[in-house]
């Protein structure tokens, strides 16, 4: 997308990619908006960003400039996100901040709308984000995609309840040479699950960086079969030296997962509490019967930037052949509206314009995004009036979008 200028109020608002000298101002602005922890780094990336793959979008850092001053900033980074066993080129959005005195005048909407269009033009089929203001993003066509359920686990309970793994899994600190194996484990989990975002590299870990996070792997018969990333944080209860935050944990099989959990509590005897994402149906959820309410259950949201490309790129249930005519009204694709025929067979889909065809389902982009991730059940959504669908078409969509609960394992 080219640079846009929009009159807004008295001044002239320009929404565009950041220019060199503006970067520091934009970072300070985002840092101020998100300064809930001290010290909290700016969510606008400061380090090198991963190079995009062929045909994938690069990093985008956009600003809104009014009367020559930067008044808002937002950043998007290229990633893969997995649906139905396939990896889609998406961007993750973060650091969206409008200068306090400029809020509530449509600046945020212009900025994020411009960034969405630019990301779409660069080849991203969707944008994923953790909203702090759900309504703001809903008004921009984003839909709830899933949750990130974090539970406060008792390390005592982990010690008592988890059985000894079979086999001879050995825990050790992760090393740079493990990067490929860890990436493969993460890709395997992403292909089994729904909504996972690409693994983003191994951090430095002790003993290489004594203050850094703990990154561990388990090896079984010389092969890396699991990994986890731990942070220590101030204790919430008397008697503990610190709490643990399990930032990520992936295992190839149940024994490796048990070895990781047992290893990490054994390594941290001073911790009473470990905060970790525990998805519904996971091994830990089955083992720990007394899980209390999650301490965090952030909703993440998805914006389908290119509906046809996203429907074509994702995986679909094997053994299902179906056809549905969708009418998706989306302000991001003006002139491109109208019925589309979604044809699914052999785990793949094609989407074609179907001018004149009667739509089986009429839906807006936010609700479609929630169906896409499996977060919203189509039959229930039709019942609730969230989409206009023939009863049999809603049932077909239920079969097509079925999958495990969509989870973002790691915050970004
Ligand atoms: C959230 C934020 C980016 C919105 O920017 P903004 O320029 O004030 O928003 P806009 O004026 O463009 O509003 C666009 C829409 O979002 C809604 N909206 C904006 N801020 C909202 C809020 N705090 N609560 C509920 N709705 C909000 C508006 O009502 C408007 O919708 P409507 O006009 O159809 O009702 C801005 O308030 C901000 O910087 N907040 C602090 C940082 C933050 O929370 N960022 C989001 C990170 S995920």
Key traits:
disordered N terminus; Aminopeptidase; binds coenzyme A; globular; 412 residues; 13-stranded mixed sheet; 25% helix; Nonspecific Lipid-transfer Protein, Chain A; alpha+beta
Secondary structure elements and their pairing?
Blueprint: E1 4-8, E2 11-17, H1 23-33, E3 60-66, E4 69-83, E5 86-98, H2 107-121, E6 126-129, H3 134-138, E7 143-154, H4 155-161, E8 170-173, H5 179-192, E9 214-220, E10 223-233, E11 242-251, H6 254-267, E12 271-277, H7 283-287, E13 296-304, H8 307-313, E14 322-328, E15 339-345, E16 348-353, E17 361-363, H9 365-372, H10 378-383, E18 388-389, H11 391-401
Parallel strand pairs: 5-6, 11-12, 14-17
Antiparallel strand pairs: 1-2, 2-3, 3-4, 4-5, 6-13, 7-12, 7-13, 8-9, 9-10, 10-11, 14-15, 15-16, 17-18
Helix pairs in contact: 4-6
Bound molecules: coenzyme A.
Residues 33, 96-98, 103-109, 131-133, 135-136, 139 line the site of coenzyme A.
Describe this structure in words.
- The protein is of the alpha+beta class.
- It has eleven helices and 18 strands.
- The protein has three domains: 121 residues, 3-Layer(aba) Sandwich (Aminopeptidase), CATH 3.40.630; 150 residues, Aminopeptidase (3-Layer(aba) Sandwich), CATH 3.40.630.30; 93 residues, SCP2 sterol-binding domain (Nonspecific Lipid-transfer Protein, Chain A, 2-Layer Sandwich), CATH 3.30.1050.10.
- It is globular.
- The two termini are 25 Å apart.
- Bound molecules: coenzyme A.
- Coenzyme A (COA) binds next to strand 5, helix 2 and helix 3.
